[in-house]
Specification:
single chain; alpha+beta; about 30% helix; globular
């Protein structure tokens, strides 16, 4: 997978995420994430002998609110819808609740993070 392949797949992931109701699918991470935004972060690429490459992505979906109940309800509502569109692009091996630091002072954003593997 070369740089062009990474850019192309990142665009495809962003476009797929944008089809989920309530999600602002993006090609690149937002400067300051807001609830409902989703983007892919390329993690690594493994060569596959004679056939191409396999890329692994972390796909983040920012959840609303600092209250645990709000996070759980928002995550529950999005879990399957996002999973369904990502599985059209590759294999999702994990979905987990995560927290991203969004400001230098330590402000955090609750997220769902999907581990997606695609083949080029």
């Amino acid at each position: 997978m070369n740089g062009t392949d990474v850019i192309s797949m990142r665009a495809r992931i962003g476009a797929a995420l944008a089809t989920v109701e309530g999600i602002d699918g993006r090609e690149t991470p937002p400067r300051i994430p807001a609830r409902g935004q989703a983007w892919a972060e390329w993690r690594w690429t493994d060569p596959i002998a004679m056939t191409g490459t396999e890329a692994t992505w972390d796909v983040h979906v920012a959840l609303p609110g600092a209250l645990t109940e709000d996070q759980v309800l928002a995550g529950d509502g999005l879990l399957e819808a996002v999973l369904e569109v990502l599985e059209q692009l590759g294999v999702v091996s994990r979905v987990e609740p995560t927290t991203l630091v969004i400001e230098q002072g330590g402000a955090q954003m609750p997220c769902l993070t999907y581990t997606l593997t695609t083949v080029q």
